[in-house]
Write a sequence for this structure.
């Protein structure tokens, strides 16, 4: 990438100078009588402009101006400009005497004015070198800033992912523990199902995004796992898209909402209900969960809230302006809706 960028910059410089050197000749229409004037008034000063530009662009601007050594930067440029003006005068006298003869006879502009014009013209390549070098430094700084921000983002996401997996595994082990005495055969089946879920967690969620169909399959297996430990008094309804689609989504984006529903929406004494629905509208995923609201007591540490906190952080990092998460309680039912634009 760096080599490619350097080639583009070199090509840009070459084309820019080629245009500057070609224009005077093209405007002269190739007339031999005007060619000497073109060389004297355009090509010779352009050579000096180019030398002065690259002295500043490659050395003086970075070495002196950007390091606060402004006095030396101005001094070296004044010395270079003075040498170029003197050298141009010698070249004009040796090779273009006929072109500048009228000026010597008093028909040209005053010598002082001619000197001022030359000084001003030599300032242009210096200013162009400063502007171009400043722009390149800004672009490089901005690129480094974006790379640093991206590294920080990936680090934070990786931390959140590692935080989520042990949390999920801990909750699943609690479910299996409750089945060991009640139904050993179901406990064995649950361990087998848990192995499949953990395989997905460990190997298929390393990508930034996964197919939505795989994520739905993971959610359905998790729901089946959770249903093994709840009583018949709890009604669980799911409605997920069955048709295959090409949508990609960040892995483990919806699992915390389902975990939260089983954690806070199931009661051993009262009838419970959990309703989960996912709709796809164009490139937007709309996931809703409704369950009975059975708030945990302050002494109950099973509802630590790590999953939802994790989800909110991940949404801010992955979908900063492309998500909407709403939570509310209505008539004893807890509602949560997550919309994500993929």
């Amino acid at each position: 990438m760096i080599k490619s960028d350097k080639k583009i910059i070199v090509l840009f410089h070459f084309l820019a100078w080629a245009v500057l050197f070609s224009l005077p000749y093209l405007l002269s229409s190739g007339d031999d009588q005007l060619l000497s004037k073109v060389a004297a008034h355009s090509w010779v000063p352009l050579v000096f402009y180019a030398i002065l530009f690259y002295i500043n662009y490659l050395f003086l601007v970075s070495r002196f101006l950007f390091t606060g050594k402004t006095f030396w930067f101005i001094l070296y440029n004044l010395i270079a400009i003075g040498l170029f003006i003197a050298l141009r005068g010698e070249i004009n006298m040796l090779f273009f005497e006929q072109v500048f003869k009228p000026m010597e006879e008093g028909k040209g502009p005053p010598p002082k004015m001619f000197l001022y014009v030359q000084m001003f013209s030599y300032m242009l390549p210096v200013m162009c070198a400063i502007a171009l070098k400043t722009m390149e430094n800004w672009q490089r700084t901005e690129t480094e800033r974006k790379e640093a921000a991206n590294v920080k983002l990936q680090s934070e996401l990786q931390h959140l992912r590692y935080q989520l997996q042990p949390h999920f595994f801990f909750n699943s082990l609690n479910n299996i523990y409750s089945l060991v005495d009640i139904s050993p055969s179901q406990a064995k089946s649950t361990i087998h199902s848990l192995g499949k879920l953990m395989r997905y967690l460990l190997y298929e969620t390393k990508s930034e995004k996964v197919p939505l169909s795989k994520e739905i399959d993971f959610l359905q297996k998790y729901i089946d796992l959770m249903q093994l430990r709840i009583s018949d008094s709890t009604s669980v309804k799911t409605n997920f898209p069955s048709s295959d689609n090409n949508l990609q989504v960040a892995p483990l984006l919806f699992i915390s909402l389902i975990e939260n529903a089983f954690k806070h929406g199931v009661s051993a004494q009262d009838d419970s209900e959990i309703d989960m629905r996912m709709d796809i509208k164009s490139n937007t995923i709309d996931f809703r969960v409704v369950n009975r609201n059975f708030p945990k007591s302050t002494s109950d540490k099973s509802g630590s809230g790590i999953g939802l906190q994790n989800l909110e952080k991940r949404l801010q990092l992955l979908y900063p302006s492309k998500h909407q998460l709403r939570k509310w309680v209505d008539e004893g039912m807890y509602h949560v809706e997550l919309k994500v634009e993929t």
About this structure: Residues 156-341 form a domain with the Heat Shock Protein 90 fold (CATH 3.30.565.10). The chain has a mean pLDDT of 78. The chain is about 65% helix and 15% strand. The beta strands are 210-211, 234-239, 248-249, 272-281, 284-292, 323-330, 333-341.
